[in-house]
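Regression test case RT-17, inverse folding.

Input:
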């Protein structure tokens, strides 16, 4: 592992007990793939905050970034819920156990729960908007040229992404394969359509037309 005290692109992880415990829990609970991805999300989200002129609580953004994909882990495969909700609930439990204020917990929960719902987080609190911005930067390349090449390289040097595209898609598939109903109306339906033979995407129009209403 890279030194957690490093500051790639001039962005530092908050030097607090909460941040250190977050790092330890996530590093011990997830794969190297998810750990490095989550760290990059924090750094890229923080850099996008500068670009967008947003001021956020870096500690809350860090917790949200580190927990945002925890629900893809094996213990949650049978939950029957969207992995985003499992991730958000784990962050909430973690924060409540440490007496973090309710409004801060709400912001972290919301940021995680909405991080795969484009078009909404950008209009919400900075922590919510920036978590999605960091995820979209690292996974989708949205806003790729918004950041300096040197800053991008520094983050990737600290938290490498070998074969990341295929590996993250495999992690998504493994995390939601057993609960395909949770992909209705969200981007993860695309993942199962590509990688799970026989998957049938939910159809919003058919759901309306086939509802029990008579008219």
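Golden output:
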């Amino acid at each position: 592992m890279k030194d957690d005290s490093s500051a790639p692109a001039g962005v530092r992880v908050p030097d607090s007990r909460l941040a250190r415990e977050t790092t330890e829990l996530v590093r011990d609970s997830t794969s190297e793939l998810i750990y490095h991805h989550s760290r990059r999300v924090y750094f890229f989200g923080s850099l996008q905050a500068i670009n967008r002129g947003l001021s956020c609580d870096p500690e809350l953004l860090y917790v949200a970034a580190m927990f945002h994909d925890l629900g893809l882990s094996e213990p949650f495969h049978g939950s029957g819920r969207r992995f985003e909700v499992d991730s958000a609930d784990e962050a909430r439990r973690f924060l409540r156990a440490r007496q973090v204020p309710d409004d801060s917990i709400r912001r972290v929960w919301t940021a995680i729960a909405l991080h795969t719902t484009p078009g909404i987080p950008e209009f919400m609190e900075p922590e919510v908007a920036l978590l999605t911005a960091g995820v979209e930067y690292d996974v989708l390349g949205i806003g790729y040229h918004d950041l300096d090449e040197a800053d991008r390289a520094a983050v990737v040097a600290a938290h490498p992404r070998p074969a990341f595209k295929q590996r993250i898609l495999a992690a998504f598939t493994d995390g939601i394969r057993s609960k395909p109903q949770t992909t209705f109306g969200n981007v993860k339906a695309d993942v199962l359509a590509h990688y799970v033979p026989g998957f049938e995407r939910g159809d919003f129009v058919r759901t309306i037309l086939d509802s029990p209403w008579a008219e």
